[in-house]
Design brief:
heterodimer, A: mainly beta, 4-stranded antiparallel β-sheet, 54% strand, globular, B: 113 residues, mainly beta, 6-stranded mixed β-sheet, 5-stranded antiparallel β-sheet, 11 strands
């Protein structure tokens, strides 16, 4: 398996633009997680899905952020409109259901909003 | 919600010496405690984990200990090597599964040759 796939790997955009990050989980994994990593705030869970259904979105910072998982092999995280403080590395991770607990992270998308 | 504190934030040790990283958590319902290693510019990767029914777990040079009464757990790396240099994150998760890991703030470990 190729592992978790994320695109794009790097994104530079101007403030106010819409940004869409994409993730393909490992085949057969029921759980999908979106994280944001910054120096100031560390690794934060934004939202996670189980069987394509959002379970907990309490980490989503504000209404400008939205996430979808239309099928078992694809998820998107959208920021609209983007702001400079959204600059971060966004990771997608997936895992099997318990008792398999390991979360496999994708390579991340480095987002820079100018 | 869960709060995980991690110390120290940075740690430098001589090659061959041991390194210890400590974490405390707040939610007594947490029962799963993984440790992730993140090399510079790379993704976090699981290196070891422990569940609440176990007090200690070892995998070659890495070991994790858990004290549920005190709500703390620690990562021990023995005979450190240059490739151990990375940022290490502890995390905690509730009893019913692997969802919603709460991560510590990370420890940047530097191994001095």
């Amino acid at each position: 398996d190729a592992g978790v796939i994320q695109s794009p790997r790097h994104e530079v955009t101007e403030m106010g633009q819409e940004v869409t990050l994409r993730c393909k989980p490992i085949s057969g994994h029921d759980y999908l997680f979106w994280y944001r990593q910054t120096m100031m705030r560390g690794l934060e869970l934004l939202i996670y899905f189980n069987n394509n259904v959002p379970i907990d979105d309490s980490g989503m910072p504000e209404d400008r952020f939205s996430a979808k998982m239309p099928n078992a092999s694809f998820s998107t995280l959208k920021i609209q409109p983007s702001e400079p403080r959204d600059s971060a590395v966004y990771f997608c991770a997936s895992s099997l259901p318990p008792p398999q607990y390991e979360q496999y992270f994708g390579p991340g998308t480095r987002l820079t909003v100018t | 919600g869960e709060n995980v504190e991690q110390h120290p934030s940075t740690l430098s040790v001589q090659e061959g010496d041991s390194a210890v990283i400590k974490c405390t958590y707040s939610d007594s319902a947490s029962n799963y405690f993984p440790w992730y290693k993140q090399e510079l510019g790379k993704r976090p990767q699981l290196i070891i984990d422990i569940r609440s029914n176990v007090g200690e777990k070892k995998d070659q040079r890495i070991a994790v200990t858990l004290n549920k009464t005190a709500k703390h757990f620690s990562l021990h790396i023995t005979e450190t090597q240059p490739e151990d240099s990375a940022v290490y994150f502890c995390a905690a998760s509730p009893d019913f599964g692997n969802e919603k890991l709460t991560f510590g703030t990370g420890t940047r470990l530097t191994i001095i040759p």
